[in-house]
Design goal:
Elements: H1 15-26, H2 29-32, E1 39-41, E2 55-60, H3 66-75, E3 86-88, E4 91-92, E5 95-96, E6 98-104, E7 107-114, H4 122-150, H5 155-163, H6 168-171
Parallel strand pairs: 2-7
Antiparallel strand pairs: 1-2, 3-6, 4-5, 6-7
Helix pairs in contact: 4-5
């Protein structure tokens, strides 16, 4: 299985993955977020991204120190000054989270912080389940997922439709 806890696999991936790797390296995103154990999750790592898919970077952020996180992002110049950033503080499963959304070159990027290790977050767990399903079901299934996503259906619901899952967000966590 691919080691999704680093982004090294991207440099040998498809053209969009290689380009994402270049941009992430150029701006030193993972290096600057290293204190927060960043992991690229979502559709890019498992090659089911479509036009408009963003690079989802999940991090472990202790909310007692969320100001430190924001200060570190600012001081490290993680996001260049001229880039507009949308910061939100959603509540997920009764827990405060943080999202930063911005665009670097041709990529929309979302940094998501939650007070748990990245590999324990649902985004990562869903991606791993989806990866395993894609490995088992092969290319035809993968193309059907991509077609559903091109029609505007989100990833988990697309898997739910094809697998007959009642609650794909919960059911994928069981894989």
């Amino acid at each position: 299985m691919i080691d999704f806890t680093t982004i090294d696999y991207l440099k040998n991936g498809n053209e969009r993955q290689k380009r994402a790797y270049e941009v992430l390296l150029k701006y030193k995103i993972f290096e600057k977020l290293s204190n927060y154990s960043p992991v690229l999750a979502g559709t890019f790592p498992i090659e089911i991204d479509v036009e408009g898919s963003d690079l989802d970077i999940i991090c472990e952020v202790d909310f007692r120190f969320v100001e430190d996180f924001m200060e570190e992002i600012t001081l490290s110049k993680l996001i260049p000054d001229e880039i507009d950033v949308k910061v939100e503080y959603p509540i997920l499963d009764s827990e405060k989270c943080i999202t930063l959304n911005f665009i670097l070159e041709e990529f929309s990027i979302e940094i998501f912080g939650q007070n748990k290790p990245a590999i324990e977050q649902n985004a990562y767990r869903h991606m791993i389940a989806e990866y395993k399903i894609l490995q088992e079901k092969r290319d035809d299934f993968k193309q059907k997922i991509i077609e559903l996503k091109k029609k505007g259906i989100k990833t988990e619901p697309a898997f739910g439709i094809l697998l007959g899952l009642e609650n794909p967000y919960e059911d994928l966590l069981k894989f």
